[in-house]
Amino acid sequence: MTSYPTHLSETWQARNGEAVEIRAIRPADAAIEQEFVRGLSAESKYLRFLDTMRELSPQLLKRFTDIDYSREMALIAVHFEAAHGTHEETQVGVARYVTNRDSRSCEFAVVVADAWQRQGLGSKLVQKLLECARAAGLETIEGQVLADNHRMLEMTKRLGFRAEIDPQDASLRRVWRRLAADA
Known about the structure:
The protein has a single domain, classed as Gcn5-related N-acetyltransferase (GNAT) (Aminopeptidase, 3-Layer(aba) Sandwich), CATH 3.40.630. By secondary structure, the chain is α+β, with helices and mostly antiparallel strands.
């Protein structure tokens, strides 16, 4: 297993002027990851998971936070809020990819907290995820998006993804793009 990629950490400013730290997820983030998912609206949960689950199961939570950085990446955005005399870390977004069995492509997903949507955070997370996948030597990145998730389809189009109807399910779109430097 590859060690924690500290070099990926950066501070970024959202359109609302608030600063967030973007960094790779780690096992110690399980509590803020669970709280993040609990705080998503039913619509956001459905658009991301195709389900309106209340929270992540213990197995899924471990799977999402205790990752093998050599085969996958999960970047989280955290905001620090002053509460009770301390600075509390709150997760406000996550983008992740998992390498496919072919070792040349990966599948990605992204979700942003409802209050942080339309701040450029989803685009920033996906752009940084694309850089990570490219640096890992992957050639293609792809994802499944609900056909009526217009904001996600627009964002991926702006980021150079192509979209096509999923041959197995017309309610889904397969979005994908090549990761070569000239793509």
